[in-house]
Amino acid sequence: LAEMLLSRAEAPAGSSVFFANSGSEANEAALKAVLRHRKDAGRGRILALEGSFHGRTTGALALTHKPAFREPFGDLLTGVEFIPPNDIAALEQALTDDVAGLFLEPIQGESGVKPLDDAYMVRARELTRERGSLLVYDEVQTGIGRTGEWFRFQGVQRSWGQSLAPDLMTLAKGLGSGFPIGALVAFGPVNSALLGAGQHGSTFGGNPLASAAGIATLQTLDDESLLSNAQAQGERIAAALRELPQVSEVRQYGLHIGIELHPGSFPGQPAPAQRLVTVARERAGLIINATGVSTLRLAPPLILTDDLAEEFVKRFTSSLKTMQDEESNER
Known about the structure:
- The chain is of the alpha/beta class and about 325 residues long.
- It has two domains: about 1-225, Aspartate Aminotransferase, domain 2, CATH 3.40.640; about 225-330, Aspartate Aminotransferase, domain 1 (Alpha-Beta Complex).
- The chain is about 40% helix and about 15% strand.
- A seven-stranded mixed beta sheet has the order 1-9-8-7-4-2-3, sandwiched between helices.
- The longest helix is centred in the last third of the chain and has 25 residues, at about 305-330.
- The mean pLDDT is about 95.
C-alpha cells in the first residue's frame, strides 16, 4: 500500500509512509514532525489558515481555526498562528525564517469547499522552500480521487507546469472506503527522517485489514476509472444545481461540492442549510452536510452513476421545495 501511494503521489526516492487510523491521527504525526523541525532548527512558529479544519485530537485541534472547536479546551499548543487564505501579501509577511511549518488544505471543506487559489499554493511552495519551512498538505478530504485527481495539489501543479509537491501530506477518509485508516506521506529522505525510531507509533496503524482495504480501494479506483467518473458526475450535479433558483453558487471539484443557498429563498429560516439537512434526510433519504448558515457540502461516493446522480438532483430539488412549502404554510 505504501508503494502504491508513493507511486500515485509521484514521490521521489527515499520517501516514506506512516500509517495511522484516521485523519486526525495522520495530522498528529505531521505535527510531531513539524515540532521536531521546530526544536532542531530553533523555530518558534507554526502557521495554519483561517477557516482550517485538521481534526479534533489535541494537536490537530490546535491547527483548526474555528474558535467553537478550540476554545472549550483552552490553550492547546503555543506558537500556532492563523493567517487569511488566498492573501499572498499576508503569507509573505507571516512566513519568515522563524516558521517551522505551514499547514494547508488545498480545498477547505469545513468552510464549504473553498479552494486555495493556484497562485497562492505556488507562492506557498516557493516561500517555504526559500525559508526552510516545512509545507504540509492536509489532503484528508481532497485526496484519493475526491477531486478527480489522485491528490488536489497535482491538478494545480499540472496547470502551472512546476512541482508543488509538499514536504508532508496527510490522507484518510476515502483511502479505506469506509474502513478506518490514515496516512502521513513524507516526500524525500530528509523529510522521512524527521521522526526517528520510537518517536511516533500506532498499535493498529498499518494493520493487515486496513492495508488490504487501502490496496483494494486504489486498485478499484484504477480499474473502474473512478477519478474521471468523479469529475464527470460532479460536473453533472453542479450543472443541474446551478439551474435551481434557490441556489446562488456551486463550487465543484470532482465530487467535492459546495453549495450556497440563495439568501432570499428562505426568508423565515435563520439557518436554511441546517434545516435542509433535516428535511433532505427525513423526507428524501439524502445525507448532506451543512458547514454554515447557508452553506452545504456534498461528498458523494466516487462510484456514483448517471442514474443516481439524476436521482440525487431530483430529491434535492424536492427537498428545497418542501422547505419553501413549509415556510409558506407557516405565514
